[in-house]
Specification:
17 strands, alpha/beta, globular, eleven-stranded mixed beta sheet, four-stranded parallel beta sheet, 11 helices
Length: about 350
C-alpha cells in the first residue's frame, strides 16, 4: 500500500502506479465514488486479471476511465450530441455513459456487447494516474464480486489482500457509492444503474425524459457461470454490495417491532448468543433507550441528507462486518428520487 496525498498526488507515486499498469499488472486507486481495481483498458490479458482477482463473472462488463472528453470519443464510434452535453456538464464526475464501442475496445471489457461504459472520474489521484498512461483504465470496484464496495484503501486490502500488487491510499471516497450508468445507445436515454446524479438532473441537461431500466435484475451467480446473458452495466446482479452479515430492511414504523425481534433472537446451542446486531437508523433515534436491544447490539445514526448518507453507507457496513455482526437492520430512507440510488444499494444488499 502506498499512501498518496488525495489533493496533490506525488508524481513519483503516480509514476510507480503508471509503470505497474503499463506492465499489465493491477493497481487499486481512489475515485470520488469508490476505490477502483485498475488495469490497462486496451489490454485483454490485463483486464482478465481484474476478473480473476475479483472472482467477477464474464457477463459483467467493466467501465473504462479516461482523463479527457477526447479520450472518451476515441473509445466510441458514435459520440452523440447527448453524450457531449452530458459529458461537458457532469464530467469529471460520477456519471458513466454507455455508448457504441470502437473497434479498439476489447470484448472482455464489454462482456462481448457492442457498447462500452466510459467516464472521467472527479478525483485528483485518479486523474493524475489517467494522465500518466497512454490508455484508458478499466476499473470496477476493488472488492470481491457481490461484496461491499471499498471506500478506503483498508477496505481494498481486507477484500483483495495480495491479489493487488499496488494499492494507492488516497483516503476515504467523497461520494461513497458507484456512478450513475446512463445508456445512450437507444432512442431513449436509460438509467441502468442509479447513482447520486439522479434522473431529474440528467433530464434538466438533456431537456427530455430519461427512462429507468425496468428489467428485473438476475440472481447473483458464481464467477464461473456461463449461462447468464451479458449485462450492459455493472451492478445489475440481484445480490450485490452486500456485507457478510444478514441484512433486514425495515420501514420507520416497523422499527420498534424489529428491535424486539433483535432482542428475542435465539441462542446458538441453547446458551451462547448469536453475533451482535447493528441497527442503522436514518431518522433521529430519540426512542432508542426504550428498545429492548440485547447486550452487544448497537445503534448507528446515519446522516439525514442523501449525499452524506451515501458517503457513510459502505463504511458503516464494513464496520459492522469488522465487528463480527451477524445481522444489520437498516431503517429504509424515504422513497424519493434523491434517495433512489441508496435504496437500490440497500435492496441488493438485503437479498
Amino acid at each position: 500500500m502506498l499512501r498518496i496525498d488525495p489533493q496533490s498526488p506525488d508524481p513519483a507515486a503516480i509514476r510507480t502506479a503508471a509503470d505497474t499498469l503499463t506492465r499489465g499488472a493491477l493497481v487499486a486507486f481512489p475515485t470520488e465514488t469508490v476505490y477502483g481495481l485498475g488495469a490497462n483498458g486496451l489490454n485483454p490479458d490485463a483486464i482478465a486479471r481484474i476478473y480473476a482477482a475479483k472472482g467477477r463473472p464474464a457477463w459483467n462488463p467493466v467501465i473504462l476511465h479516461v482523463a479527457t472528453i477526447e479520450a472518451a470519443q476515441a473509445l466510441t464510434r458514435h459520440w452523440s450530441n447527448d453524450a457531449d452535453r452530458l459529458a461537458r456538464h457532469f464530467w469529471p464526475g460520477p456519471l458513466t455513459l454507455v455508448l457504441p464501442r470502437a473497434a479498439q475496445v476489447p470484448d472482455v471489457a464489454t462482456a462481448g456487447l457492442d457498447a462500452v461504459g466510459i467516464r472521467i472520474p472527479a478525483h485528483p489521484v485518479a486523474l493524475a494516474l489517467l494522465q500518466a498512461v497512454p490508455f484508458p483504465i478499466a476499473a470496477p470496484s476493488a472488492n470481491r464480486f457481490t461484496q461491499l464496495s471499498p471506500t478506503t484503501a483498508a477496505h481494498v486490502e481486507a477484500s483483495l489482500g495480495d491479489r493487488v500488487p499496488l494499492i494507492l491510499d488516497g483516503g476515504p471516497c467523497t461520494v461513497g457509492i458507484e456512478s450513475t450508468v446512463l445508456d445512450l445507445c437507444g432512442a431513449t436515454p436509460t438509467v441502468l444503474r442509479p447513482g447520486m446524479i439522479d434522473r431529474a438532473q440528467l433530464e434538466a441537461v438533456l431537456g427530455r425524459p430519461i427512462a429507468l431500466a425496468t428489467a428485473a435484475p438476475h440472481a447473483a451467480v458464481s464467477a464461473d457461470d456461463s449461462t447468464t446473458a451479458p449485462q450492459r452495466s455493472p451492478g445489475m446482479a440481484d445480490r450485490h454490495y452486500a456485507p457478510q452479515a444478514d441484512v433486514w430492511l425495515v420501514e420507520t414504523a416497523g422499527l420498534p417491532e424489529a428491535a424486539t425481534g433483535l432482542a428475542q433472537r435465539p441462542a446458538d446451542h441453547g446458551h451462547t448468543p448469536r453475533g451482535a446486531a447493528v441497527l442503522l437508523r436514518w431518522s433521529t433515534p430519540n426512542d432508542t433507550d426504550r428498545w429492548p436491544l440485547r447486550a452487544g447490539d448497537r445503534v448507528v445514526t446515519m446522516p439525514e441528507a442523501p449525499a452524506e448518507y451515501a458517503r457513510a453507507l459502505y463504511a458503516a457496513l464494513h464496520a459492522a462486518d469488522a465487528t463480527g455482526a451477524a445481522l444489520v437492520v437498516i431503517e429504509q430512507p424515504p422513497a424519493t428520487d434523491a434517495w433512489h440510488a441508496i435504496r437500490d444499494r440497500l435492496a441488493r444488499a438485503a437479498r
